[in-house]
Amino acid sequence: MKVFRGLPNDRARAPCALTIGNFDGVHRGHQALLAHVRSAAAGLGLEAAVMTFEPHPREYFARKSGDLSRAPARIANLRDKLEDLDQAGIDRVIVEHFNEQFAAMSPRDFIERVLVDGLHVKWLMVGDDFRFGARRQGDIAMLVEAGREFGFDVHTLDAVMHGDQRISSSAVRAALLEGDFVRTKELLGHPYAMSGHVIHGQKLGRTLGFPTMNLRVAHRPALSGIFVVQVHGLADAPLPAVASLGVRPTVEDAGRMLLEVHVFDYAQQCYGKLVRVEFLAKLRDEEKYDDLATLTAAIDNDAAQARAFFAHRNSALTATDRI
Known about the structure:
The structure is a single chain. The chain has helices spanning 28-44, 57-65, 78-87, 100-103, 107-116, 140-150, 169-177, 181-188, 204-208, 292-322; strands at 2-5, 16-20, 47-54, 92-97, 121-127, 153-157, 161-162, 165-166, 193-199, 213-216, 225-232, 239-246, 258-263, 274-284. It is of the alpha/beta class. It folds into two domains: 2-166, 3-Layer(aba) Sandwich (Rossmann fold); 192-321, Elongation Factor Tu (Ef-tu), domain 3. The strands form three sheets. A six-stranded parallel β-sheet has the order 1-4-3-2-5-6, sandwiched between helices. A six-stranded antiparallel β-barrel has the order 9-10-13-12-11-14. It has a two-stranded antiparallel ribbon with strand order 7-8. Helix 7 (169-177) packs antiparallel against helix 8 (181-188). The longest helix has 31 residues, at 292-322. The two termini are 43 Å apart. The model has no long low-confidence stretch (mean pLDDT 92). It is an enzyme of class 2 (transferase). Pathway: Cofactor biosynthesis; FMN biosynthesis; FMN from riboflavin (ATP route): step 1/1; Cofactor biosynthesis; FAD biosynthesis; FAD from FMN: step 1/1.
């Protein structure tokens, strides 16, 4: 899969079948959309392409207004989004920098400069509620009319449902906020995980008896707290662990988000490694403690609960194998 930061240059502007969206957490609704794009591209001899945005447009406008609480929490970082799009069979992803200039682009300019001249779109599919251009003035009818003028087909996809619930990024965020990883998996079509490179931390965990590997989280995630997790990328099989995702209020009240993972019975150095942390269950919310002794006791209890989780799961798997 080819990834472009902004519009491709002339030599890379092959005609394409395109869809446009934020794709925060490539859930089953997104997957259905991407399957249509892939099928159309194959039938027409085009590249299957996705245009997405960084930062999320609502995050851009929240920062501009000075009220970051209006920005949506992120389900996935850019790396995980691109991995999911690659797994969906997309040939080309355009990561458009959403800034003041892009936000001010008129719907007509977006059609001519981006879709026609920039991406050579021949087939386009968007969600049934898609809006574009400055102040979201562009709509489906405008796209259809432009398609007749410039020679590209426009299609829409109705909402994909899970029971009576619309599958959406908002629904995924709600499930993650509640720590409901069963429902999250149903909406995503796969277990929820975050990936990142292991970085150096304060190494306080070592002094408390719980060494951790640390992953930087660049954006406000859709969940926080203490979790039972398993870590992929350190061994042939995922390793059991307990993790804290938050701002560590007891030891550093600076608001910097970090994912700290204590892998059970694992002592190897892993700085710089790319790992994937899969979330299995939420134990509790993040808390601020009066001292390190109280914090250590809480971590010890968290670790015991996580070990019990894995022991119960392994026992259940063994019983199933015997049937």
